[in-house]
Automatic annotation (TrEMBL):
Protein name: Phosphoribosylaminoimidazole-succinocarboxamide synthase
Organism for this UniProt entry: Iningainema tapete BLCC-T55
EC class of the enzyme, as a word: ligase
UniProt EC number: 6.3.2.6
Top-level lineage group: Bacteria
CDD domains: SAICAR_synt_PurC (cd01415)
Keywords: ATP-binding, Ligase, Nucleotide-binding, Purine biosynthesis
UniProt xrefs under InterPro entries: SAICAR_synt/ADE2_N, SAICAR_synt_PurC, SAICAR_synth, SAICAR_synthetase, SAICAR_synthetase_CS
Pathway entry: Purine metabolism; IMP biosynthesis via de novo pathway; 5-amino-1-(5-phospho-D-ribosyl)imidazole-4-carboxamide from 5-amino-1-(5-phospho-D-ribosyl)imidazole-4-carboxylate: step 1/2
Classification of source organism: Bacteria, Bacillati, Cyanobacteriota, Cyanophyceae, Nostocales
Swiss-Prot/TrEMBL GO biological process terms: 'de novo' IMP biosynthetic process; cobalamin biosynthetic process
HAMAP family, alphabetized: SAICAR_synth (MF_00137)
GO molecular function, one term: ATP binding
Length: 246
């Protein structure tokens, strides 16, 4: 019988060791946080929904040549992943102005960007995950210039795939956050999750600025119907994945 020891607990997931040091078990939680965990709550079945969405998308990315940490999903809210050392960087890719980009630049919400914007943030809760310049990133030795180049290239690749994938779900990909880690061979792998927790997703069937939101902004902004929005994303993702298998 496998023995799982808790390795780390974050805001959205718990990481456990397995009998194989190269493999970890991730358990997705129903807990919801926003504004650097200043706002806390719970979303019914969020763990199952986000695990399911992430599992499907990671498999689709792998088919498209983008290596990631996903192995399989032994339980609806669990994912077995390759053990990686996560780089302390949050990589944000933006296609449309929203959130902090609007607050910090004055760009109107919904402004389409001429080309995707790739930003690096310092993954450090106590500092509030600040936006990094290249020089600060290298000053803090958070990644090598080669790793930054590779991550930027991969982030753009993931963006192109996800934009198309979500478009087939009749969803607009506004922006999203990625994390990367190094495996035991020092290979850079896409990690963490891809879900309504980490992506801004707008329903193509709805033009109302509040009603169209299908992501964690519903929780952040007290828009209600959070569970329904997450469930809607899952159903559309499964429908598109099923259609590609036929």
């Amino acid at each position: 019988m496998s023995v799982h020891t808790k390795l780390y607990e974050g805001k959205a997931k718990i990481l456990y060791t397995t009998d194989d040091p190269e493999i970890l078990l991730t358990e997705f939680k129903d807990d919801a946080t926003a504004f650097n965990a200043q706002k806390r709550g719970s979303i019914v079945d969020k763990g199952i929904i986000n695990c399911s969405i992430s599992s499907q998308i990671f498999q689709e990315l792998e088919k498209n040549g983008i290596k990631n940490h996903y192995i399989d999903s032994p339980q609806p809210n669990q994912m077995r992943v390759k053990a990686v050392k996560i780089l302390p960087l949050e990589v944000v890719v933006r296609n449309i102005a929203a959130g902090s980009l609007c607050q910090q630049t004055g760009l109107p919400l919904g402004t389409e960007l001429k080309k995707p914007l790739v930003e690096f943030y310092y993954k450090n809760d106590s500092l509030g995950d600040p936006l990094l310049t290249s020089d600060r990133l290298y000053l803090l030795q958070l990644a090598t210039p080669e790793q930054v180049d590779t991550i930027t290239h991969l982030a753009k690749q993931v963006n192109e795939f996800l934009k198309d994938f979500f478009q087939r779900c009749d969803i607009t990909l506004v922006d999203f956050k990625l994390e990367f880690g190094l495996d035991s061979q020092q290979q850079l792998l896409l990690a963490d999750e891809i879900s309504p927790d980490t992506c801004r997703l707008w329903d193509n069937f709805n033009s109302d600025p509040d009603s169209r939101v299908l992501d964690k902004d519903r929780f952040r902004r007290d828009l209600g119907n959070v569970e329904n929005a997450y469930q809607e994303v899952l159903q559309r993702v499964l429908k598109v994945v099923d259609s590609t298998l036929k």
